Amino acid sequence: MSSLFELPQVLSHAQLHEARGLLAEAPWHDGRASAGEQAAQVKNNDQLPPDSPSARQLRALVTQALEHSAMFLSMALPKRIFPPHFNRYGAQRNHYGPHVDSAIRRGQDGGPHIRSDLAATLFLSDPDSYDGGELVIGSGLAERRIKLPAGHMVLYSADSIHQVTPVTRGQRHGAFFWVESMVRSATQRQLLHELDMSILALRQRHGDDTSTVALTGTYHKLLRMWAET
Q: Both 195 and 145 in a single domain?
């Protein structure tokens, strides 16, 4: 898989409006409470308690949107999704320094542990409503700076070093979560996604002819070969 993918309009305008209403009334606490030992040293933001009513409603909203996103399903081939969490950057709690996510996430409510193959950030604030707050993925020549419109999402390899730059004006709200993919190899996921997108383009151009049916068969043969369910 490439270093990152942008997924536009994961949330509709109506879903985004609902999410913002829930965020405005939500309780917040120090985000360091959920960080590992290394990350807690550089983490300085607010998070919603995962068992709060606001977090539950937001989680259901985002999960529903993901289930209806053909692009997300094609890119991630999700086996398990760590339930979305929600954060806020601004004022004194305004940044998250360079860190790497844990390879294994503890399951929620006694559920199975999750291997973090992919990480995702779903932007919930308009980019012109705050200064700073860029998601920086990688370092040096490979560094990418991400600041997307509200409702858009970025999906990237969870083993990447990343950070959120200080928010110097306004507030930046977002959802974040991790994905354990059915296909562990990033290269294999990339090939399957590219093949899936090519089949879709051919279908739109020519319909379901013998070539698209054959390519679809090839896609599923590869998926059977590589997938862990």
A: no
Write down the pTM of the prediction. Answer: 0.94
Q: Tens-of-pLDDT digits for all 229 residues of the chain?
A: 456 899 999 999 999 999 999 999 999 999 987 776 777 889 999 999 999 999 999 999 999 999 999 999 999 999 999 999 999 999 999 999 999 999 999 887 778 899 999 999 999 999 999 999 999 999 888 899 999 999 999 999 999 999 999 999 999 999 999 999 999 999 999 999 999 999 999 999 988 999 999 999 999 999 999 999 9
What stretch of H or E contains 22?
A: helix 13-24
Query: Do 192 and 177 belong to one domain?
Result: no
Distance between CA 105 and CA 178 in Å, rounded? 8
222: containing domain: 186-226
User: Domain count of the chain?
Assistant: 2
3-state secondary structure (DSSP) of residue 25: coil
| Unique residue bearing structure tokens 């279908």 | 203
Same domain for 159 and 176, yes or no, is: yes
Do residues 73 and 91 share a domain?
Answer: yes
Q: Which is nearest to 138 in space by CA: 166, 167, 158, 117?
A: 158
Dihedral, 97, 99, 104, 109 alpha carbons, nearest 10: 0
Nearest 10 degrees: Cα torsion 103, 38, 84, 58: 170
What is the CATH number for 16?
Answer: 2.60.120.620
- 27 and 100 co-located in one domain: yes
